[in-house]
Amino acid sequence: MSHKRYVFFSLLIQVITILLASVISIHICEIFGINQLVLPLVLGGIYILLRMLHYLGISIAGHFLDRILSKRQIEVAWDIFTPGKVQTQENCRDYGHGELMKKRMELFHYEYQQEQQQFLYQKEREENEKLEAVLKYTKNTFNRLGFDEAEIFQISESVRYFVTNRQALSCSKVSIKKRLSVTQIALKNFAWNIAYQYNIGSDATATFVMETFSEWFSNTAFDTVRKNLRTTTGRHKIEIDEHIA
After folding, report:
1. What is the pLDDT of residue 31?
2. d(CA 238, CA 240)
3. In Å, how far from its chain's centre is CA 139?
4. How does pLDDT run across 82-101, given as a tens digit for each residue?
């Protein structure tokens, strides 16, 4: 019940009590021949008596209601915890868990949202740190192999697109010139190292290395590259490294 409704019903009870006390007081004065000057005292006494009866009635009704509810709760609890009884939603609500579960759900929802935001923030930060490590590895690797700045930039952008979209970026703007000192095996190892950090499949990885370093693979079949992305035997300019990020 809202505060306004509570005030309204309180005033209504007061008015009814006063009117009833007035009627009873007038009848008492007429029956017993009491002087009208004493009427206010009689009215006050009757009013107090009616109020006491009112509160007494509320108390008695509340007592019986508590006993009825307690008995009902015991019966519901017996139904809930007795083996073989089905725990229905109605029983749980009667047992008084409805409001408690609602409050717990609200608290759980708030905590879950906070934790989810923290989880997403932590995940985003970790992904950014991994990407930075992968791009640093890319830059250092091809800088060591003598590639120029424009080529390293193109390779880095291809790597960024590859790990973000799980597909290859077509390298049409900047041509990456073939070096005889850098073999297909080395480049496939490089592509495998990148793909391994993000659990990217062999088809996408093969497409990535063939698109990015197209001059090395112009006469090589896709299936040949896909089946031999990882080489651990021998020494190569780029070795297999599972821990670049």
Report:
1. 80
2. 7
3. 38
4. 444 444 555 555 555 677 88
**Distance in angstroms (rounded) separating the CA atoms of residues 138 and 191:** 10
Tell the burial category of 3 from Cβ atoms under 10 Å away from its Cβ (0-12, 13-18, 19+).
exposed
Q: How far is CA 216 from the centre of its chain?
A: 48
Please compute the mean of the pLDDT values over residues 114-131 and round it to a whole number: 91
Tokens representing residue 86 in the block: 């089905």
Tokens of residue 187, six digits: 């480049």
pLDDT band at 147 (very low <50, low <70, confident <90, very high): very high
Cα four-point dihedral sign 59, 60, 61, 67? positive
Nearest partner of 213 among 243, 169, 160, judged by Cα = 169
Place of tokens 């700045």: 149
- Rounded to the nearest integer, the mean pLDDT of the chain is 81
Give the phi and the psi of residue 77 in degrees, each rounded to 5. Answer: -60, -40
Instruction: List the one residue out of 190, 153, 159 whose CA is nearest residue 174.
Output: 153
Alpha helices (H) in the chain, listed in sequence order: 3-32, 39-81, 89-94, 97-144, 149-165, 184-198, 202-212, 222-227
Tell me if 177 sits within 8 A of 145, measured CB to CB. no
Q: How far apart are CA 150 and CA 15, in angstroms?
A: 92
Contacts of 165 (CB under 8 A, 6+ apart): none
pTM assigned to the model: 0.56
